[in-house]
Amino acid sequence: MSTPSPTPAPHHARTPVRPVVVGIDGGPRDARVVAWAGVRAWAGRHPLRLVHAFRQTTSTDPFGTISWWDPAARDEAEQFVARVAAHVRARAPSVQVTTTTLAMGPVAALAWEGNGAEVVVIGRSRRAWFRPTGLSVEARLARRVPGRVVVVGPDDETLR
Fold first, then answer.
1. Which tens digit of pLDDT belongs to each residue from 88-97?
2. Which residues of the chain have pLDDT under 50?
3. Is residue 55 part of a domain?
4. Looking at residue 36, which CATH number applies to its domain?
């Protein structure tokens, strides 16, 4: 007499929940971007991952033989992200919020964290007179992230 094989779990039970990744930089558009991403995470029952890229400063002795990282930049970045996460948790306690601070450029950080994300949410970048690549942050990120990238503009933005 053979024993019946166990019923396999449905496909959705094995699929990991992909996060909604949102890039924050301390600018004036962060509130709107985080609110948009928070609603998307809540509506889709996805975790929300706050990503902040910062510039790591290094110091070198006068002879150039010993270099060290200044921990103040990382501490400041982690405090900033913790404040934003606390704000989100207070407004949407049912949303799981995680944070990441990375010592790299914003495009590289969001591409790294956005790999496998449900969606990557960013604010419209500031206009710059000179861009070495000729492309905006949005365009460079869209080229590097395999999934969807949403660019959230201000309320008063006109579409052209």
1. 999 999 999 9
2. 129, 160
3. yes
4. 3.40.50.12370
Query: Of all residues in the chain, what percent are helix, strand and coil, respectively (each to 5)?
Result: 35, 20, 45
Residue type, 154: P
Domain, as residue range, for 110? 17-147
Q: Is 37 helix (H, G, I), strand (E, B) or coil?
A: helix
44 inside domain? yes
In sequence order, what DSSP letters do the residues of 90-143 get, joined into one string?
HH-TTS-EEEEEESS-HHHHHHHHHTT-SEEEEEPPPP-S--TTSS-HHHHHHH
40 inside domain: yes
> pTM of the predicted model, to two decimals?
0.79
- What confidence tens digit (pLDDT) does each residue in 17-43 have? 899 999 999 888 899 999 999 999 999
Q: What are the distances in angstroms from CA 144 to CA 54, 66, 148?
A: 19, 35, 11
Token output for 147:
């999934």
In this structure, is residue 160 part of a structural domain? no
